C-alpha cells in the first residue's frame, strides 16, 4: 500500500531533502506530494516550531480537505543568543531564505565567543501530521557547535556553520546521504514514518476508503 502525504512547503531544497529522507526510510511506501501551485502560504506568525508547523498544515488542509497533510518547521537555536535565531531562522537577516546573509549575521553575533563550548547550538525540526479530526507532532533535535567560518558546499540554510560533533564535520561537509542519516529532519520524519506503521494510525480517506497502517521495509 502506498500513502500520499501532502507537504505544506514551497522550499525546493527542503522538499528534495525530505523526499530523500522518506524514501530511505520507507522506500516507495510513502510519497511526498507538493501543494497546489496557486497556493501562497501566509506569514509564519507562530512563537514555536509546533505552532508554525501546524499553521502551514492547517492552511494547506483548507485546500485539500480530504487528504493527509503535513506541515514542517525547522530552525537553529544557539545557547549564547538566548535561543536565536529560533523560529525566525529563515528570515534572521530580514529577507526570507537568504542563507548567506543569515549566516553572516549569526557569525557576527557569535564573534565574541572564542571557546567552542560557548558556541553550542542545536537544530530542531517539528513535523505536524494533520488528519481529518486530529493533529500529531513529531520532533527531531541534533546538538552541535557553531563554527567560526562556513565549511562545506552541500546542504542549505545554516548547514555550513553547524558542526556535528561525532563526525567533526559541518552538515555542509557531509554528503546528502550522510546528513540524512543523522539530521534533525531525518529524526523527525523517522518518528513520523514509525507512527504510520502503528495500529493507531487509521483515518478515513475521501470519506469512503480506509487508510491502514503503512508497513515499511
Describe this structure in words.
Helix 1 (12-26) links the parallel strand 1 (3-7) and strand 2 (30-33). The radius of gyration is 18 Å and the shape is globular. It has helices at residues 12-26, 49-61, 99-109, 176-182, 184-195, and strands spanning 3-7, 30-33, 69-78, 120-130, 135-146, 162-164, 169-170, 203-205, 209-211. It has a single domain (3-211), classed as Maf protein. The protein contains five helices and nine strands; from the N terminus they run E-H-E-H-E-H-E-E-E-E-H-H-E-E. It is α+β, with helices and mostly antiparallel strands and 217 residues long.
Write a concise synopsis of the structure shown.
This protein is α+β, with helices and mostly antiparallel strands. It is built from five helices and nine strands; from the N terminus they run βαβαβαββββααββ. The chain has a single domain, classed as Maf protein, CATH 3.90.950.10.
Topology, element by element:
Elements: E1 3-7, H1 12-26, E2 30-33, H2 49-61, E3 69-78, H3 99-109, E4 120-130, E5 135-146, E6 162-164, E7 169-170, H4 176-182, H5 184-195, E8 203-205, E9 209-211
Parallel strand pairs: 1-2, 1-3
Antiparallel strand pairs: 3-4, 4-5, 5-6, 6-7, 8-9
Shape: globular
CATH class: Alpha Beta
Number of domains: 1
Q: The CATH topology, please?
A: Maf protein
The averaged pLDDT comes out at: 89
Q: How far do the termini sit from each other?
A: 12 Å
How many individual helices?
A: 5
The main pleated sheet reads as: 7 strands, mixed
Cα Rg: 18 Å
Strand content: 15-25%
Tell me the helix content.
25-40%
Which structural class best describes the helix and strand composition?
Answer: alpha+beta
Amino acid at each position: 500500500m502506498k500513502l500520499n502525504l501532502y507537504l505544506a512547503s514551497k522550499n525546493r531544497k527542503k522538499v528534495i531533502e525530505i523526499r530523500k529522507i522518506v524514501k530511505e526510510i520507507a522506500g516507495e511506501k510513502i510519497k511526498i506530494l507538493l501543494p497546489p501551485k496557486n497556493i501562497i502560504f501566509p506569514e509564519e506568525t507562530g512563537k514555536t516550531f509546533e505552532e508554525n508547523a501546524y499553521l502551514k498544515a492547517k492552511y494547506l488542509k483548507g485546500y485539500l480537505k480530504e487528504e493527509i497533510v503535513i506541515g514542517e518547521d525547522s530552525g537553529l537555536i544557539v545557547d549564547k543568543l538566548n535561543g536565536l535565531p529560533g523560529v525566525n531562522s529563515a528570515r534572521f537577516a530580514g529577507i526570507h531564505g537568504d542563507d548567506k546573509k543569515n549566516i553572516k549575521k549569526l557569525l557576527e553575533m557569535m564573534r565574541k565567543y572564542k571557546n567552542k563550548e560557548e558556541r553550542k547550538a542545536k537544530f530542531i525540526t517539528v513535523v505536524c501530521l494533520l488528519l481529518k479530526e486530529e493533529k500529531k507532532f513529531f520532533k527531531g533535535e541534533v546538538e552541535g557547535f557553531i563554527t567560526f567560518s562556513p565549511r562545506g558546499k552541500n546542504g542549505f540554510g545554516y548547514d555550513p556553520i553547524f558542526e556535528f560533533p561525532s563526525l567533526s564535520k559541518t552538515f555542509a561537509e557531509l554528503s546528502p546521504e550522510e546528513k540524512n542519516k543523522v539530521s534533525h529532519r531525518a529524526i523527525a520524519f523517522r518518528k513520523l514514518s514509525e507512527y504510520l506503521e502503528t495500529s493507531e494510525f487509521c483515518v478515513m480517506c475521501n470519506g469512503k476508503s480506509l487508510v491502514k497502517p503503512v508497513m515499511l521495509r
